[in-house]
Amino acid sequence: MSAFAARYGPWAAVLGAAQGIGLAFAHELARRGVNVLAVDVREDLLGSAVRAVATPGVEVRGLVLDLARPDVAERLAAIDVPLGLVVYTAMLALVGPFLDEKLERHETALHVGCRGALAASHVLGGRLVAQKRGGLILTSSGAGFQGTGWVAAYSAAKAFDLALAEALWWEWKPHGVDVLALCPGGTATPGMLGNAPKLGVELLAKPEDVAREALDALGRGPVCIPGEDNRRIRAALDQLPREKLVELMGEQTRKMFRGT
Known about the structure:
Layout: H1 3-8, E1 11-15, H2 20-31, E2 35-40, H3 43-53, E3 60-64, H4 72-77, E4 83-88, H5 103-131, E5 134-139, H6 152-172, E6 177-182, H7 190-194, H8 207-217, E7 223-224, H9 228-237, H10 242-258
Parallel strand pairs: 1-2, 1-4, 2-3, 4-5, 5-6, 6-7
Helix pairs in contact: 2-8, 5-6
């Protein structure tokens, strides 16, 4: 058994595992010898994802679950595998002017991005604290470091995930549980590509690189920004006055999806 599997196994729950960064996490965890419970609302994709992740000596199971459900905490509490790691990647990213989306769609995105992450942290993370071992990864975003126009509700949800992970990193460290806020930049996921970005597609990170770097960073601090270029850009952005930062991020995001 690898040192990683000994600390974060025998099972990891990946919430939002059918595609994108979540699927990349499932593959990387299986490669590291950790059994995977792949959780996703997309039943049409989950079966093929489980089969793709399957690795000799590693068990992979699928669980269809809508993380926007009002009873998400009760559904999560029914998970009966011995968890050592919880990875929350589920999201609904709404791109465009805030008022162009119906309130109901914003509410669904909020439930997936915030309430689901909160429930997973409380219900499943609580198990990790009780056993005094394990890890929790909440997926935030570079858009979560400030309000980001054109993805306003998404950036707000990711700010919630970032703050929650940082706070739990401090609270749970004495209990032997490593918590990480994963803050990737633009990544070539089906969700991102489905929003038809017009600029910078060639610069998008690969989901597998994001997942690998996040797992390597677990236990080394509260925040992981994958990619050296992204870390340099973030450091430069943090030097800007807040007004300029918000203006720049909104303009760049609008250009990315609307084009020049």
